[in-house]
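[step 3/7] fold_predict: job queued, chain A
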Amino acid sequence: MPVVFPQLPEALPVAGIRLASVAAGIRYEGRDDLVLMELAESSQCAAVFTRNAFCAAPVIVARQHLVTQQPRYLLINSGNANAGTGDPGIQDAQQTCTLLAEKAGCSADRVLPFSTGVIGERLPAGRIEAVLDQALAGLATDGWKAAAHAIMTTDTVAKILSRSFTTGSQRFTLTGMVKGAGMIRPDMATMLAFVACDADVESGALQQCLNRAVERSFNRITVDGDTSTNDACVLVATGAKDSGKIQSGTADFETFCKAVSEICEDLAQLIVRDAEGATKFVTVRIENGR
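[step 4/7] structure written:
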């Protein structure tokens, strides 16, 4: 059972984000294990990944794709990490991006792949291909809760939160989901996190904000001292609310960063509370530390 796990509020939809969850039969039976997340064309995306020198195939491919284009789709599977699979694993990750891109009408480098689950087994790309049409047809703005369940592996509960914040006279929505329960330590953990907002944020400022938030949240939790191969945290600003672009160094940027840091800190704590075998939640406070 999770350690003092809070009652989570309903996830708020984020304008410019649609999600679908389907059962691809990658490892689990009778449950969804593939999530498709569609980002509005106006979206900016920032991401951080594991610092482990031994990276899984989807991390390698996602990093490459992020350098070339802003993503249009995130493709997330649970049950198979596609890690320790060498060049064939990279080919499998690239293949799933290509298959989705062909169906969605975009280039393959506008798809970012994410995987979590068993290490050392080939990703069954054919099973993913078989349900892509279903996933595209099922995209909806209220798909957050189902997606949070679909990305679970050893988690016992889904982890999802929403926040609202205001800059000037404009109110924005921030929603995030995360998975993770074991192999958790700083330098990212065995976790996947996806946070989205309907604000319009300059690309460099978005990455700066995410770096700051991760250092205060996901890089400050530990359960068992193990760093994983697949860790990723993605922050999306859809720009769906046309209220002017948020730039680094402004008061609006600081307000935005505060909201992102708060939701990342709360999501990180949900991981610790659902940690494998956990019976206590401990906070260590260090003052005047180097």
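[step 5/7] annotate
The two ends are 36 Å apart (CA to CA).
Strands lie at 17-22, 34-39, 44-49, 73-80, 111-118, 159-167, 170-179, 192-197, 232-237.
exit 0
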